[in-house]
Amino acid sequence: MWYRRGRSLIRIALFICLTAIWLHAQSSDALAEKSHQGKELMSAGRFADAVPIYQDLCRALPDNLGLRLNLALAFHMSGQHREAVPEFERVLKADPSNFPALLSLGASFLAVNEPAKAIPLLTKVVGIQPGNVNARGMLANALLSQGRAREAVPHFRQLTAQRPEDAKGWFGLGKAYETLASDAFQKLDKTSQGSAEWLALVADSRMTRRQYRSAFYFYKQALEKNSALPGLHTEIADLYRRSEHPDWAAAEERKSGAVNCVKNKQACDFAAARYTQAAAGPSLYWQARAYNELALDAFKALGKVPASVEVHALKAEILASHGQHAEAAKEWEAALQLAPGEPRLTQQYAAALFEARDYTKAQPLIESLLKSNPNSPELNYLMGEMLLRSEQPDKALPWLETAVRLNPAMVPAHASLGLAYMRLSREADAVPHLKAALDMDDDGSLHFQLARALQRLGDTEGSRVMMAKYSDIQQRSEAEQQNLEEKAQITAP
Predict the structure, then answer these.
(1) Single pTM value for the model
(2) Helix, strand, coil: what percent of the chain each, to 5?
(3) Suppose 105 and one of 88, 322, 376, 489 were both cysteines; which one would form an S-S bond, judging by CB atoms 3.0 to 4.6 Å apart?
(4) Does CATH place domain 180-303 in 1.10.8?
């Protein structure tokens, strides 16, 4: 987190107003001793121990802003962010431009997951100190988390210019551009679903996931809709090269015609790698493609940053977001080599192995993590799901029950628990969990299991309704699959 890196700056400002206590009319040797004790504890990094000292001092001298600020900072630096918030707010009510309070209150709001409240504070901080990298990083990430990617981009670009060796800036810039690309596609999806542009973007997404046959199908559909759409032949040629047909690629590229740059400036900007200009035009199609390329450029820059735990972790997140879980696991493994035994990295590594279905490596890691963190719903779910997939529902059951108890909102855990109960012939127990997970049922299997459970429990009508929904999902899925199997063959140009 960016705010953690701002601690050194905060420490500089910790004691700026302490001398006021010595001049207060009610000053005494006892208060002076407490003041000295608080200062020593803060200097030693014993922030939690300093909290009661400053609470006593603030009760004795409630109008002393320096003491109030130090109490807020003691709460903040000891991780008691909710307690810190009202103290910082009291300081800012009396002194709206107090820099340490502005910065630290913004960081505290981020720590308690209230980025919307942090944004105006951090904006003010960056206005006061434009070169404050930590404040700008916090602001950029807060904006991105609130769906304000367009506002976040210039801050991330400034960060990468100020610190090109910092992986977080490049990662944030890439994520911001990915968000803008997604926003452009969503708008196109609402207004022009099924158009050549929409089909081409769907094909692009399949290419990213290395689903070449599916991508080819959508590219060909786009060509049928609009054979003059610039760039399609180039994209198909790239697909041919990736699927080891260089001769077909050459033939396809020869079909590309010249683009009228007066009528289609965005296409020409894109072809010339002027992606920022291409993204600024009115076409949502070219916006989406240009933002995707800008994201790719940012992630390439991230790849050039010297190896570190953070760099490997960020690369793993990028790979996982594109469905490349085995590759993501390798990045987490590389991060662990630099920080052996680090629990958070170990859990991420185990989760990536799980997603890659490498249960042999994942299970001992999760077992080890559970010994030190038995109340983690995620770890309990992963262990239960692995055992369930290994046809051991009786052993999976206690882990899945624990996961649901610890986090009732974890829908995948409900689905797995329902399936485990079904395999153990405990239909009455299975029903509520299967019902809780129906929204994630994309292949109809949960509807089918729920229909079976209701039938065995004597609810004939409920079973009939669920079976009808299952049949509908299955027919739709089979039709789509058959259509792709028939049409998604990569053929010569």
Answers:
(1) 0.73
(2) 75, 0, 25
(3) 88
(4) no
Spell out the domain ranges in the chain. Answer: 2-146, 180-303
Give me 133's structure tokens: 């990298």
The CATH fold assigned to 2-146 is 1.25.40
How many angstroms separate the first and last alpha carbons of the chain? 50
Q: Residue 69: which of 95, 32, 46 has the closest Cα?
A: 95
CA atoms 336, 338, 340, 345: torsion sign: negative
Looking at the chain, the number of H-run helices and the number of E-run strands are 29, 0
Residues with Cβ within 8 Å of residue 257, at least 6 apart in sequence: 228
**DSSP string spanning 182-219?**
HHHHHHHHHHHTTSHHHHHHHHHHHHHTT-HHHHHHHH
For the record, the structure tokens of 486 come out as 């028939």
Secondary structure (3-state) at 209:
coil
Which pLDDT score is estimated for 485? 53
Whole-number Å distance between alpha carbons of 130 and 155? 10
23 pLDDT exceeds 60?
no
**How high is the pLDDT of residue 28?**
64
Best CA proximity match to 98, nearest among 63, 125, 80: 125
Which of 70, 107, 110 shows the shortest CA–CA distance to 90? Answer: 70
Closest CA to 184 of 82, 299, 86, 291: 291
Q: What is the pLDDT of residues 234-265, one digit of tens each?
A: 999 999 999 889 999 999 988 887 888 988 99
Candidates 125, 43, 54; CA nearest to 87 is 54
pLDDT at 386 over 60: yes
DSSP string, 38-86: HHHHHHTT-HHHHHHHHHHHHHHSTT-HHHHHHHHHHHHHTT-HHHHHH
Query: Do the beta carbons of residue 154 and residue 127 sit within 8 Å?
Result: no
User: DSSP state, 339?
Assistant: S
Task: State the average pLDDT over residues 267-274.
Answer: 94
Question: What angle separates helix 196-208 from helix 284-304, to the nearest 10 degrees?
Answer: 20
- Closest to 89 (Cα-Cα) out of 117, 126, 59, 125: 117
- Cβ proximity of 100 and 10 under 8 Å: yes
Q: Tokens in use for 46?
A: 């014993």
Q: What's the CA gap between 334 and 314, in Å, rounded?
A: 12
Mean pLDDT of 394-418: 96
Measured in residues, the chain has a length of: 493
Quickly state the pLDDT bin for 32 (edges 50, 70, 90). confident
List Cβ neighbours of 186 (8 Å cut-off, separation of 6 or more): none
How big is the CA angle at 52 (ends 48 and 55), to the nearest 5 degrees?
125
